[in-house]
Amino acid sequence: MTTATKGLRVRRAAAVALTTGAMLATGALTAAPAQAVTTPTITAKGGYLMNSATGKTLFTKAADTKRLTASTTKVMTAKVVLSQSNLNLDSKVTIKKAYSDYIVANGASSAGLIVGDKVTVRQLLYGMMLKSGCDAAMALADKYGSGTTVAARTKSFIGKMNTMAKSLGMTNTHFDSFDGISKGSNYSTPRDLTKVGRSAMKSSTFKTVVKTKSYTAKTITKTGSTRTMAAWKNTNTLLGWNGTLGVKTGSGTEAKYCLVFAATLNGESVIGAVLTASSEANRTADVKKLINYGYAKIS
């Protein structure tokens, strides 16, 4: 009796195995629900991730908490410049001593622009977005602001940045600088920075600039000769990793390490931001986690 029972069990098990094998062979099990994607843990104090194609939120961590943005502010500076009517990217700007003085006074990051040189708007965008040059940012703000002095024009430009922020629905953002060197009231959130990043990436010029790893500008000197500038290397070391296309780094004593990032792989696009990461290495690790998570959530 025992032997008969054992034989029955063996035959049943074989039948189940045979049926399962047949189902696998025919693909009958492919409709089973996919495993849930584990939500990552990031060390940055704030983070946000969006499906850039649909605008759907994929990840949040203190996404609406206002924080210092450091040089990620320059994404908005570029957005305002590229939104100017009848924009001529080959228009030349003469570098003023005021820009050099500003860099020195603030200990700011510089593209190394030379006073008296004529530099195109396009070149200034590269100097600002790759090298994170505050001199390039100031030159653009001075050119596209209105007023009779540099101070008035740059203030006017910052006003345009705030107007643009409102139009993009950046409800927790305020700019008091063109480069992220805050005067006490320059802040945004991961969600808001993602909004301006997504909008800016719709510009082919912006997209081309921020995905460039190195750029060498040829400027025109006071005497009319050509100056070949030292190459501007992109501060975003994630470029090219797993489809990463940009967008802008930021760092500061109080702001710590920040990044607005965008990536596209196999037709899946994500965009997001992390603010106040404790180190550059942690910022990189956080963004890699978010990009991988985003792809997994979309697929």
Instruction: State the separation between the terminal residues, measured CA to CA.
Output: 54 Å
Number of helices: 9
Beta-strand level of the residues, as a percent range? Answer: 15-25%
Q: Characterize the overall form.
A: globular
The helix-and-strand class reads alpha+beta
Mean pLDDT: 91
In order across it, which strands form the biggest sheet?
A: 2-1-11-10-9
Computed Rg: 25 Å
Query: How much helicity do the residues have?
Result: 25-40%
Could you tell me the number of beta strands? 11
Spell the H/E element sequence. HEEHEHEHHHHHEEEEEEEH
The major pleated sheet works out as: 5 strands, antiparallel
Poorly predicted ranges (pLDDT <50, ≥5 residues)?
Answer: 1-33
Describe what you observe in this structure.
A hairpin with a 5-residue loop joins strand 1 (46-51) and strand 2. The protein starts with a helix and ends with a helix. A 5-stranded antiparallel beta sheet has the order 2-1-11-10-9, with helices on both faces. A two-stranded antiparallel sheet has the order 3-4. The chain is globular. 44% of the residues are buried. It has 299 residues and is of the alpha+beta class. Helices cover 40% and strands 19% of the residues. The chain is built from 9 helices and 11 strands. Mean pLDDT is 91; it is low at 1-33.
Explain the layout of strands and helices:
Elements: H1 2-26, E1 46-51, E2 57-61, H2 74-82, E3 92-94, H3 97-106, E4 118-120, H4 121-129, H5 134-144, H6 150-167, H7 190-200, H8 204-210, E5 214-215, E6 218-220, E7 226-228, E8 232-233, E9 244-252, E10 256-265, E11 268-277, H9 280-298
Antiparallel strand pairs: 1-2, 1-11, 3-4, 5-8, 6-7, 9-10, 10-11
